[in-house]
Amino acid sequence: MPSSTRPPDVVTRQRTVRRRQSLRGLAFASPFLVGFAIFIAWPVAASARYSFTDFNLFQPPHFVGLANYRQMLHDDVFWKSLTNTLYLTVIGVPVGLVLSLGGALILNRPVRGQPLFRALVYLPTIVPIVVSGYLWRWLLNPQYGYIDELLRLLHLPQPLWLDNPAWGKPAILLVTLWTVGGMTVIFLAALRNVPKDLYEAAAIDGAGPIARFWHVTWPMISPVTLFQVIVSTIAYLQVFTQPYLLAQTRLNTSSGGPENSMLSYSMYLFQNAFVYLKMGYASAMAWVLFLVTMAVTALILLNAKRWVHDGSH
Amino acid sequence: MAPTDLQVPPAPAPAEAIERKRTKVPVVAWLKIGGRWSARRLAVLLLALLFAFPFLVMLSSAFKNAADIFHAPPQLLPQHWTLGNFREAFRQIPIWRYFGNTLFVCGLNVLGTLISCPLVAYALSKIRWRGQMPMLMIVLGTMMLPPQVTLIPIYLLWNHVGATDSYVPLVVPAFLGTPFLIFMLRQFLMSVPNELIEAARIDGSSELRTYWSIVLPLARPALATAAVFQFVWTWTDFLNPLIYLNDTSKYTLSIGLYNFFSENGVEWGPLMAACVMFTLPAFIVFLLGQRYFVEGIATSGLK
Hints:
By secondary structure, chain A is mostly helical.
């Protein structure tokens, strides 16, 4: 230890300085420390405990072991909501990725009025979800709506959308994909960061636009792509408000669309907690969602090694 | 950069310069600058139209009378322009009251974020202490936790202290820091040179004074971003007001609209008019802070 060779008063002074620094750090971080304790640490522990209990708000929770988890295995609505959510994720994530990257590539060219177009593409993401839910219900109205009218003009079939169990989920995807602008903006920033000399070198090697995309753009932005895949996967696994508003029928708080075709996992969780007051079961569902999210994220990360470049060329 | 940018020869430069002189170019002329229709411009325009179309429908429906709204096939523009939907919306929904409630909640949330997040971000970037790395890990870990896990215990907690059906559950968390915004501000503060802060410390300035008079003024753009983020999130929030507010007089706009819709069935005209009024403030805040906002998403998304 080098400090042992120094005079003792220097050592103690160092120690008090370090302690004072720690106190300063703690003081400045204290809002978050308090917030973390109250709104994260304690709720996580409590939720884990509730998940092993039968709890309806009016009586104290009583321990039931794994009953809640076992009940899920036999709950058809649970499985329905899970498959609905996986359907949305498996289609929504890749389609959203292609749309946002495509949009970013289009917007990345030096076009007059680019900031305006960027803002236009981004605007849907800041529309209150309640507004976008009702707006899309109006757009998808089979009789007076614009989407079916557009399809009619194109001589395509006009589905009943929200009234048809097969078309509820595509309708949810339409509403969520409308807000793909957030991803587009992140991709735009990533495209700006690709060094220009790489393209010049590729052009000298005779690479065409498509080759340059696959050999320069795609690998260079792959860390950002990975980030977007993970974030949007998590968002789809947790999707709540869009299907909740699209499936809503008058004053029926537990509507899941025709044949529960629009019931997402989080909607069913919400119903169990706040409509049926099955707080224990809902807590167990939350933990299963957490585990599924972790598992899916881990799978994506393991798979990522094959296509993500870490920047060491 | 898009691959084809390289192919742009230096020749079009003068054309671009001329183009820039004209302040307003009609769409058609804009599309065929350089004498030919440009596929790139067409693609950009189509993309923008695709995203803007629902807005156009919302606007035009808000100014249509009932006969125009329930007209099959639907028409893009109203036959008879009317303000009746707005009048009707104000009559049926206490919009001013909901506006006030929402602004109140938003204002307190922005205030809370501006007080708490930079403090924590400062501890995570500019104070050298042993807890820095563990704290940063906790902030990042918190960002990944699904809100569903904590939703029920937090509700029970507020229920226990009798704070449901009040704004307390909607406001207090912002004063204790939002992980995403803490992280964003921390990334910004990392780029502030240490010399300035060290100099102030050597001059005997207290930590709080250094923070207040040197760091905060430097962080103004990042603070603006955080404020815009928090405002838009709170303005558009649906789930929290849905869970916590019962008394109709306390409703925020999202939950007020939701209630209007579920109790009265569908009156598309007034609903669209209310939607327009509800969306406008978020747009205005976004356009005012656009420069900061979009940069903020880009940088915090990347790093």
